[in-house]
Amino acid sequence: MQSMRWAIVAVLVNVLAVSQVLATGVLLPDFRPIVEENTPAVVKILVEYDQQVSDARAEEEIPEYLRRFFEFRGGPPQQQRQSMGSGFIISEDGYVVTNNHVVEGASSIIVRLTDRSEYVAEVVGLDPRSDLALLRLEASGLPVLKLGKPGELQVGEWVLAIGSPFGLDYSVTAGIVSAKGRSLPNESNDNYVPFIQTDVAINPGNSGGPLFNLEGEVVGVNSQIFTRSGGSIGLSFAIPVSVVHNVVTQLRETGQVTRGWLGVTIQDVDKNLAESFGLDRPRGALVTQLQPDGPAAKAGIEAGDVIVTFDGIEIPTSTDLPHVVGLVPPGTKARVEVIRDGRSKTLKVKVGGLDADEKPSIALAAAEAESGSRLGLQVREVDAELQTRWGISGGVVVAAMESGGAGERAGIQAGDVITLVGSTPINSVQAFVRAVDKIKPGKSTPLRLIRRGSPLFIGLKLE
């Protein structure tokens, strides 16, 4: 009886929804023309791996929330492993776009069209950082898809996907754009793709397939899902067409991809740090470290600068900066607006290439700890050899902390290396004590730290 009541309620809700649509004159989109026109250019990709590669892939530990679509559960197979994905044709002479993770390490790649014709595909180029791959077929006169214009997609807009989930060829699913600019670092902790988030049902086999707008243009390439079961739960992520344009053009011309690079390590700006650096609100990317002789260092950017615009584009959060810089060709001269000591300053930087970047780590000196300060800390100096080795100008190591002290409340941890208090560089214990003594109570002051090899800023406020 209860189930009958719920069924009646569901029917009434649907009737009400239809009535509202009819009353307002707003109709749901008709996807049929898009599907009919574009499906012939969507392809199914069949991949084989040799035993050695197959076993290695089967043993990889991939976070469940970012499971790649080609993942197979269970132990390593005993035979040659097969996998599948989707893709789409972008030129009549046989160029095909798909995901890097679909074809990486493959011993053979077969591309199947809707008419069941098959072609052996050649890999033109792979780009693991964006998870894109470009293939080439020995064919001509093929159907093609049109790439949309970057930046036109809006949150709330209808989109649909065509692919082969679980081997069900050329399935169509639809939904809306849930968000844009999502940052999902890959296995190498690179973060150069501002993913499109949608609620389109995407499952294993859709990977590499196109995401369309209502104009029938490709606005993204389906790449990842958030899942706890292995199937769709309404959180799907696609590579935006701006990245596809950039990467595919470079792969087609040179077979490799070069990205813009500044040579900075950055972090986000919270409320305390915004106050510390004289910002009206939390925004921008806070520079915590610079690569020696990198583009940013040569341009005069300093640790403690907050980058708020790059090449005329606003940087709301730190994760937006790599997305913007990565699309700029190396050698380009760009204007960078930074906030330094509470004032805006514009600098010109010649953008470098990504591959010059290295991530430093740091070792601590084994000197005796000396007495601390108003922060409730005991600190010691960093060995000179390590300063030279890691490019640190001085600094003190936090050896011990007073429970409940100001340092602990601010988030400082034992083992942190403090290199800057406010705008004062720290090159000795004495310099650290003097700088801390000058901190005004009630005012937030930025402290620059090196923690387990990674630089960061925290906002400190004394009672």
TrEMBL record:
The keyword Repeat applies. Its main location: periplasm. CDD domains: cpPDZ1_DegP-like (cd10839). It is found in: Periplasm. Its EC number is 3.4.21.107. Gene3D superfamilies: 2.30.42.10, 2.40.10.120. Residues 246-342, 363-429 form the PDZ domain. The keyword Electron transport does not apply. Keywords: Hydrolase, Periplasm, Protease, Repeat, Serine protease, Signal, Stress response. It catalyses: Acts on substrates that are at least partially unfolded. The cleavage site P1 residue is normally between a pair of hydrophobic residues, such as Val-|-Val. Might be efficient in the degradation of transiently denatured and unfolded proteins which accumulate in the periplasm following stress conditions. NCBIfam families: degP_htrA_DO (TIGR02037). Belongs to the peptidase S1C family. This is Probable periplasmic serine endoprotease DegP-like. The lineage of its organism: Bacteria, Pseudomonadati, Pseudomonadota, Gammaproteobacteria, Cellvibrionales.
